[in-house]
Amino acid sequence: MYPHRTVYSARSKKTHGTVYVAASVGIKLAYSLFRGVGAGLIAFVVLAFLFTIGPIVKEETKYASRSSEDKAKVEYLTKLAEANNISKVQEEAAGLGLDSYFSIYIPKIDAKSKVIANVDPGNEVAYVASLKEGVAHAQGTYFPGQGKGVYLFAHSTDTTFNVTRYNAIFYLLRELEVGDDIVVFFTDKKYVYAVSDKQIVEANDTSWLTRQYSEETLVLQTCWPPGTSWKRLILVARPKTDS
Q1: Of 116, 92, 118, which is closest to residue 183 (Cα–Cα)?
Q2: 13 within a domain of the structure (yes/no)
Q3: Are residues 59 and 151 in the same domain?
Q4: Cβ atoms of 176 and 114 closer than 8 Å
Q5: What domain count does the chain have?
Q6: CB of 121 within 8 A of CB of 127?
Q7: Which string of DSSP letters, residue by residue, matches 104-117?
Q8: From 54, 169, 199, 234, which residue has the greatest number of CB atoms within 10 Å?
């Protein structure tokens, strides 16, 4: 497409000079036409591509944006629901005179108390001090919601006159039967259990304490008969399916 002629010859006497080379009008027109057609083809291909892929890109962009917005909405609503639920649990516990951090409520006998966590059941000085304040959670056992064994123990006593003196939260524990509810508040969540078993065991029987539970199990222990340390009353409860 470019013009070609002899520009310099060694037979020429001139050692230097200026040479002007110009294409003919026809070649210029052909070259311009070729460039125009090429640019047009490129533009056509680009437009065709955009026309074909554009709607897809548009929909993908809309979907990604919508998904991001939906995710943000779900996260917001989830947090809002959790906050509302926490508030309800806190209000319910407060209405019973309890703290939703860790406490127990047994509706049938109207027993309610805070729970002191991680009390060593083998250290008499430690657990006696804790039992003056409320119900003790046995050190080494799990907490509500962890899917394992939760072990709580407290005083009983011989007469109603001594209930206050000994802080006998579990004084009427013997009145509970299979199916009765036990409510535990823990870290602003409410756990409802139903009694599934009740047993009287020897004082040195620690099997309920040391047992490895494969499912969430709440065990309550107190002295039996009330006011003595001869034996132990054990109540076993498991999560209610409708709680």
Answers
A1: 92
A2: no
A3: no
A4: no
A5: 2
A6: yes
A7: EEEGGGTEEEEEEE
A8: 169
Q: In 3D, which of 158, 110, 155, 108 has the Cα closest to residue 136?
A: 155
Residue 231, strand partner residues: 202, 224
Query: Is residue 5 in a domain?
Result: no
pLDDT in tens, 128-178: 888 888 999 999 999 999 999 999 998 755 444 444 444 567 888 999 999
| Three-class SS state of 131 | helix
Residue identified by tokens 């050190």 is 139
Residues 32 and 139 in one domain: no
First-to-final CA distance of the chain? 87
Whether residues 233 and 180 fall in one domain = yes
Q: Is residue 176 a contact partner of residue 104, using CB atoms and an 8 Å limit?
A: no
Q: Which strand (E) or helix (H) includes residue 49? A: helix 25-95
Range of the domain at 129: 99-239
Residues 35 and 81 in one domain: yes
Element (H, E) at 125: helix 124-131
Does the model's pTM come out above 0.70?
Answer: no
